[in-house]
## 1
Amino acid sequence: YLDCLWAQIQKLKKDRWQERHILRPYIAFDSVLCEALQHNLPPFTPPGHMPDAQYPIPRVIFRMFDYTDAPEGPVMPGSHSVERFVIEENLHCIIKTHWRERKTCAAQLLSYPGKNKIPLNYHIVEVIFGELFQLPLPSHLDVMYTTLLIELCKLQPGSLPQVLAQATEMLYMRLDTMNTTCIDRFINWFSHHLSNFQFRWSWDDWADCLTMDLEKPKPKFVKEVLEKSMRLSYHQRIVDIVPPTFSALIPAEPIFSFKYGEETGSSLPGYPVSITVSNAIKNRASNEEILTILREVPNPNQEDDDDEGESFNPLKIDVFLQTLLHLAAKSFSHSFSALGKFHEILKTLTESDDGKLHILKVVYEVWRNHPQMIAVLVDKMIRTQIVDCAAVANWLFSQDMAHEFTRLFTWEILHSTIRKMNKHVQKIQKELEESKDKLEKQQHKRRDSGDDEDMEKNSEEDEEGQLEEQIERLQEKVESAQSEQKNLFLVIFQRFIMLLTEHLVRCETGSVDISTPWYKNCIERLQQVFLMHHGTIQQYMGTLENLLFTAELDHHILAVYQQFCALQL
Amino acid sequence: MSAKLDALKSDSYIEISQYRDQHFKGNRYEQEKLLKQSNTLYVGNLSFYTTEEQVHELFSKCGDVKRIVIGLDKVKKTACGFCFVEYYTRGDAENAMRFVNGTRLDDRIIRTDWDAGFKEGRQYGRGKSGGQ
């Protein structure tokens, strides 16, 4: 940003400060103004650097187009011209002012003064994508930009959609080098946009992705777009909208995979109990009755019939959860209701960390073709404390999930989990602050009340005592929550370091280039965790540096940490 | 001067509409108070085939969705074109009013409006034949 602006100012100086885009309404009043009292501007010294000065985070100017991309009509000002700066600033300003009302925002953008001198549609599209792809975060919700672009298409149906299509094509061409976080946003934007326009797109233009390895950025992008598009419509729709040549990229039909079905599962050890449990649930048996039935499930982990009772039995979890979720597979609501009804049983089964990990494994196994369902079930299970956040992190990084490591849903679940943890800590901190405020008010009231009856004084003291107890409890709760939060980040970063180190060592020993699509994804996902949650991570930098990001680490991994520190977010 | 500047902060998409639920148990004032604090949206003009999953995917773009209740025909107990979406925070619901209201879901332009809060029974259509 600064480099670009500096170049623009220097060019402006070379052009003898001539600039024609800033509105100059005062020119119309020149005759009056030149007669008025003139003032001298005092000299101005910018403040020097201070150790505790807070700077805005570094910004990159996002550019897609140059004058060759808009061949007809007015010429697009060059990237180092100050006109470009002025136009972009003004468009950003319009969005900042009117983002809450998309129709007004679109109308204001399209009536930009001086629009006849520039290819306005190109500037608008470039500025909007610039904000959408901004790192660490866009200025506004992703969905604001989607609906703004839709409004713009409505107002300029003969010209804007074409520019948008051109932009989409250009972004597609550059997927190989696009930052992973930006690819996520591109996927979400494009699928949501298409869903408003009957999914009409010239898919054949992208036939080049069909001959590539499916892990490469272009076919991966198309696959994720089709998956997201399916979530906003339905499977058959997706089959209908793409050419038959794209069948390898079409998502799987989002149906339940039941292990204990009659045809395929009747020989499995858990099958008989699965039938019994299924009937018990249908007949509204009590939790005790179901737990009794489940005791019949043999434990593959135990050699002898150790009648310990509730030690970790993966098969028990498997049989119960598969059966329950199968009965509830009809919709999200059915599944949530099932989790709620049998909450007690689930909590018993997942008391241990092994249990928590295994329940996640089973949820994945049954719903592996419906990642959206997996995400909402994991969310519910965290909120109802059937699993904890660290268990989810460990599960996503586990060997069992390695083949899904580069899929978008994996990272959506991880970031959602981190956000829940953060919100939980914030909530308790807020409760603590509120209680402290309440106590302070009580104490002031007591001091100001003077000579009251003894009885009133006693009840006030009781109240204060209760508040002090509450504050102590909340203090403990906050410390416990923060400890859990710190542990979550430690787990996540530790897992990243393990995976990346393994990859780097393997490549080094085999004298193979480290830059595989997997590596690019993984290292950028590590960056993404830092950037998306920088506010929270700041508190734990000391621990991270002492325990994980030490000098012994491979420099590729350490570089990510050091770059993050250098941003001074 | 300040009236002009107010236009810069205009946020008309989140205002409560003229609609008031005739079956609401309470007076107009109470209803309006609930509407102004509500985290729940009524969503109309859904296709009869629109699923909870589709609604969840779209409305999740504005924040974490707490609950979705699909509106049902009172007689047939099948989906009849509306639903309720409840968020954990009002801010997320406001964003849905700004960015989802008037856009398409399952090819239809859907409409969102503030709702005083879901209560058991309100998921049933009140039309003569049992639909909306």
## 2
Amino acid sequence: MAWLVVRLAITVSLLYTASAVFEDQVGKFDWRQQFIGKVRFALFDTHSQASKKLLVATDKNVFASLNSRTGDLFWRHVDKTGPEGHIDALLMYGQDAVVVVGNGRLLRSWETTVGGLKWEAVLDTGSFQAAALVGVQDFVKYVAVLKKSAISLHDLSSGSQIWVENLPDSDTVQYQTIYSGGNGLVFVLGFVPNSHIVIVEYKIEDGEIMKKKSVEAAWMSSLENSCAVISSGILLCVDQITQSLYTLPLQSAEQTEMRQIHLQTLDLEVASGFPPVLTSTQPNPAQPPLAEFFLQLSPDHHILLQLKDGLIAPLRDFNPSYLAAFATSGEKTVAAVMSPKNDTACSINLFSADTGRRHLDTTIIYHMDPNGGKPNRLYVHAFLKKDDSVGYRVMVQTEDLTLTFLQQPGRVVWMREEALADVVTMEMVDLPLTGTQAELEGEFGKKADGLLPMVLKRLSSQFILLQAWMAHLWKLFYDARKPRSSVKNEVTIDTLSRDEFNLQKMMVMVTASGKLFGIDSKSGTILWKQYLENIQPNSIFKLIVQRTTAHFPHPPQCTLLIKDKDTGLGSLYVFNPIFGKKSHISVPALPRPVLQTLLLPVIDQDYAKVLLLIDDQYKVTAFPSTKNVLQQLQDTASSIFFYLVDTSQGKLSGFRLRMDLSTELIWEVVIPTEVQKIVAVKGKRANEHVHSQGRVMGDRSVLYKYLNPNLLAVITESTDTHQERSFVGIFLIDGVTGRIVHEAVQRKARGPVHFVHSENWVVYVYWNSKFRRNEFSVLELFEGAELYNSTVFSSLDRPHPPQVLQQSYIFPAPISTLEATLTEKGITSRHLLVGLPSGNILSLPKMFLDPRRPEVVSEQSREENLIPYAPEMPIRTEWFINYNQTVSRVRGIYTAPSGLESTCLVVAYGLDIYQTRVFPSKQFDVLKDDYDYVLISSVLFGLFFATMISKRLAEVKLLNRAWR
Amino acid sequence: MATIRPLSLILSVLSIITLLWPQSGECNNGRRVGEAVDTDFSGFSVPLEHSFEVDDVPRFHLRGALQFRGGRENSVYLSQNQLSEKDRNILKEVAAVDGLYRIRVPRVSLQVDRQTERQSEGYLTAFVRACSLVESHLSDVITLHTDVSGYVIGISIVTIPGSCRGIEVEDEVDLEVFNTTISVVAPVTAPAPETAPYIERMEQEMEKKGKNPQEQKSFFAKYWMYIVPLVLFLMMSGAQDQSGGGAGGGAANGGGR
């Protein structure tokens, strides 16, 4: 009851901070895009001709159904991250999709139309090898799952286990493949490397081993990819070293040796160093596979072969060809082959599988994106047309994770950029000015060349402005007559210009696959994309805005530092963030591992900020490194400090730049790694503004904030993980002098720690291992009632340690990520944006996290608007800024100020991307949407005319009176 | 350069020897040494070194000795020598070129029972601008920071006042003796959410409210005898004057808050 009363009291006292989105505001300034990740399995629903379903399973542990006409999601299931939710296999039969999850831990069957779970079966432990549908008498009834040491058979309609059998000699034999041809038998194929193949035959009814044989195969090193079952149960293998094909009928008793067919006899040769790949097709699991198969001999050479009467004959040679795939519709099986056409396009053709003859008029031209990667997967959807010929559509996946769905004759039906499912880092860049604005800027930018030309120039630019204004008015008038829905104007790269309040920006997103995107923040349209090739999969990216759009006519400039995690070697990629074009600026070579980067406020003559890169010998490379920059660096060298963190030794060290761009060690702090290890170090954001220097207290005195721009928050976690002894350490260290400003230990706590460091406060979240709950803690630093030096802050001259206040709260939910809102001038109150694992983003007012919240309410604390202390932090659903637009697996939140002080732009990214605006102090500088302009203007005009009329009347009356 | 190299070699050899010394002693006597130190109450001492060079290449030499006393509070004393005539001049020169004054201590553990592993390699360094040290007449504040287990993790030095205004320090006497304040700071324990006092307070408030039910009455319940006639009066008189009624309602709302 007490809790209830208190909560009620808080609710009432905070009514004014409540903010939520109205129903009619939904989607007005926010958008969400949902992604799935890199496709590992894709199956088209061939159950009925009209079906639009495309089932996909991805490396992000997502199982989804896409609309193959639009590319939209029908439904999506996001499983756990990591190996627990890894999708091992996807099989489809009729309306059901069977999925094996978590290294063979779970077997699930999904209803494909609505995405409902039909059944789930927990399997025995053991690493997953293969799964297959098993049919009996033209009817698919079972699904077989092969583990490392066991095979189990499950009923397809209920999931119940029919039988499970241990595999013979599973400690020596590697079982990898499963095959069933619909004749009441299941074959399990295993092998002992470089020795022999083992074939075990199981009876479907009870799992009895019918036969077990081993066949000599000394050349074999792997079954997968290099072997396939074709025709009526004939095992076919290919070997690179002996340059041969091997065949073996699975059921024959007499043949105890694989028959060798030299590739030479077929006039074929496997490219050196390329493991050949065999691809067969089994259109119906209850029937044996086809006798035709693809053999890939080199990365761009496929050949369609046929096994007939024990002889292998080539049907068609595809040289060159990138990709090949089979597809079946009804009784017809076709093969689609992608071949290069010219440098920028590929052609996809359809061939009938049994003859290798080309179908007429089936060419699809696939234009390769010059800024994209090469195609690496081809999925074909074949269907029967009305005239019984085969039509098809294809989905192409490229290296840069673009899914393109094409239909004849090459029309792109839809496209998905799945690289965006893994955004690593991002920045928001202001859009450029419009042509007229730029013209005006240019006028002031240029040097004076006489009085008359200046006047003429001014007049011409004024005229241009007038013209633009007229055009704008005309457009407004024209648009006003049209219905609202049709006014939607497309955003293209040419029409990009900054809006009145700078609310529309360019989102530059860097993804883990090495693809960069430029996205319009207002609509979410991808305006440019650029794929960087040869990016190591575990690279670290750092995106730096060196020059903003403010320096017309110099184009804005972004620099991406790509660093290999293992070697530490880095490279720079410089580009224009608005158009995505690579700059032709010479980039310094980085022969040594980069330890730290530093963006200085020093600018060169082209207004680009100077980036310093520190290598492992503590040498500094400047970029750009023009004479001008080097001169400036020499002048300011003694005031350029930077810090390095070595987490393996727990060492933080500070360096100072020397004139000759070498560095000297000036301070060192070592936190012993035996006790605790550094998990994160964060400074403050460079573009952050703090409006007020202090806080006015209840007694009208001022408590000044300790606003140290060089302060670093260092978070450590104890090596001892026992719940009573584990702790989280918080160190506030000055990055220039190495002075430990504050040092605190949160007992009985452990990570993961999320924290935000801003203004004069640090907020961190940890897990309380004793009470098993998440807790928030806030640290605020104050200088006291007097400022030491109110004009300028210098770390070298601030001898008195700040006062530190701290308070902690219980947070009744787990947390994925934490960020703070940011506004142009820092007047607006701050909110914390908390990304929850549920996908919601909570906007928590910072006033709840205030260490000065009093235990007992007093007159003074009321005066200060302090909320009385309550140990539990409320979570209110109105505070979810993304209402029902949840962001799956939110990994980061990016905030950027807009031109309006009240408004902060927010982008949350994870599996999905969500962009919105937040107004932490409501829209105090904007008129409401439903503001009644007509009423106010009519009242004004009415009053104006009323005064005019009454004035006239009064005059007449006065005149009349005077005459009397 | 040639002279520096042998010097540093000698230094490193020396440091190895000093490192070896306590270890070899430990080997012979086992735990006894530690106990002896404990009862002796003399604690132990570590050197505090400083460096100020015109060419800004650190060459550390002894400034004084930090003496730690074991026990509950980490108390520390600094015994240091006066600056010699030569050092004073160098310091002033360094201050004139805006050089740095650096100090360092070896990494040690202040826990008495950890004497065996007390010293590990490496130093902790900090700096202050030499000019501010000169202008503050050698009055500095040195703080040693320890972690939870008593290891010294960082040292900091500030001068009071910390500014460099370019004031000439004429008097030689001002630069002879350090006026040092030294302290050891251990991490503070961050507060956990305070649930118990909060619940207690809530219960007290509830009790208070339970005792005098008079206060629990709502605003309307308390003042109905005034409100009803007022409303009746307004209804009677306000038939022709609508706006008056509206204003009255607004006022009542305001009162309700």
